[in-house]
Design a protein that fits this description.
The structure is a single chain. This protein is of the alpha/beta class. It has a single domain, classed as TIM Barrel. 57% of the residues lie in helices and 12% in strands. It contains 17 helices and 8 strands. It has an 8-stranded parallel beta barrel with strand order 1-2-3-4-5-6-7-8, surrounded by 8 helices.
């Protein structure tokens, strides 16, 4: 029997064996709220208001508790251990957003290095990750990406950004910890790509350590991926995602009068995503990948292709990843079949992480459909108990 046929993402017993009925009912309430678009729009304001009036406990016990590990690395231990008990690794994701000053950039850089230190001595943690905008100014990345001249002060600040970027990658290399560089908006991605490409060339000498992230909801990224693999001889790592800035990308393109970089429809996006999986697996001798998706068909596509190529389920060069608190039916059924799986586990102060969580909900246009799938599986499991 093919590996694909052995997997059943409808198996809720495996998916939710770690959750109590109370946990499932709380998750059901939360996912049900995501099906209301008006609530997604007013949610960020409501969350800020609740925090402002001292209702941090309510936020922490609901949306934060569902999708985050804690406010500190230490608080994440419970979630890390729980995932490990199900043969699932952790990707520690320091998820603060919105702060743009040198002090915060240095603190974030230091915190990311702490995640690398923890991962180096804890095999339950599979990867570390960072966003370039967490360690440097957005407007600088815009100017560099567009090829504009930087003045002396900007050159100084961009040099600091590059120093932080390399110090993180070097730290991961020395600690032998795999590191994701997250993808961001298309108008700052060229600068991020250039930095990530240089770090892969410098540190992926014996195996893939630094991974760049490829957003396949963009029309041009499959060609970019293929070009990188065809023209580079060193080891490479790629995290394949669809993308999380769809509405923002479309709005900016319309406002500024350029072609929307996003795929014209879901079919085109799915086609490029699965082709990206195939291309990476066909070059597995030098490419490691993380299939970062909540899409069941793409997950099964990767499983089937691995089987066709004779790759072991547990091949260390192929990971699957989903967000903590979502798509447990994919994560735990894959891990149960001995595939390598790691969950993105956001953490950080509640007040700083809530913007990240609400952006995830708002900018992911598929959240309503995903919530519907989550709800149906939760209801199925509750009825079986």
């Amino acid at each position: 029997m093919a590996e694909k046929d052995q997997l059943n993402f409808n198996n809720t017993k495996i998916a939710f064996s770690h959750k109590s009925a109370h946990d499932l009912k709380k998750a059901r309430l939360l996912f049900n709220s995501f099906s209301y678009k008006w609530l997604l729009k007013v949610g960020p304001g409501m969350a800020k208001l609740a925090l402002g009036f001292g209702f941090k406990g309510i936020i922490k016990s609901t949306i934060f508790d569902q999708f985050c590990g804690g406010e500190t690395i230490r608080e994440c231990k419970k979630a890390i251990d729980l995932l490990a008990s199900r043969n699932v690794g952790t990707i520690l994701d320091y998820s603060i957003e919105g702060e743009e000053d040198e002090k915060t950039f240095e603190e974030t850089c230091s915190e990311i290095k702490k995640t690398i230190d923890v991962a180096s001595v804890n095999d339950k943690i599979s990867f570390s990750v960072f966003k370039t905008t967490g360690i440097g100014r957005f407007d600088l990345l815009v100017k560099v990406s567009s090829g504009k001249f930087l003045n002396e002060a900007e050159e100084h600040d961009y040099s600091k950004l590059k120093e932080r970027f390399e110090s993180i990658c070097k730290h991961a290399y020395e600690a032998d910890v795999n590191l994701f560089v997250d993808a961001e908006e298309s108008w700052i991605q060229p600068a991020i790509d250039a930095l990530a490409e240089h770090m892969m060339f410098k540190y992926n000498t014996k195996k893939s350590i630094v991974f760049n992230t490829i957003q396949l909801y963009r029309k041009d990224r499959l060609d970019y991926l293929k070009n990188q693999i065809e023209t580079k001889n060193h080891f490479m790592g790629f995290k394949l995602v669809r993308g999380a800035y769809m509405e923002k990308e479309a709005a900016r393109a319309q406002e500024r009068g350029y072609e929307n970089p996003i795929q014209p429809n879901k079919k085109s996006c799915d086609k490029d995503y699965d082709e990206a999986i195939d291309y990476c697996l066909d070059h597995i001798e030098k490419v490691s990948i993380c299939v970062g998706t909540h899409n069941e068909k793409s997950s099964l596509h990767c499983v089937q292709r691995m089987s066709e190529l004779g790759l072991e389920n547990s091949d260390s060069r192929v990971y699957f990843s989903q967000l903590f608190g979502m798509s447990d039916h994919i994560s735990f059924n894959l891990s149960n079949a001995n595939y390598r799986v790691a969950k993105y586990l956001p953490y950080g102060p509640v007040s700083a992480v809530v913007p990240y969580l609400t952006r995830r909900a708002q900018e992911n246009s598929s959240v309503a459909g995903q919530a519907g799938r989550e709800l149906s599986l939760i209801n199925k499991e509750l009825k079986s108990r």
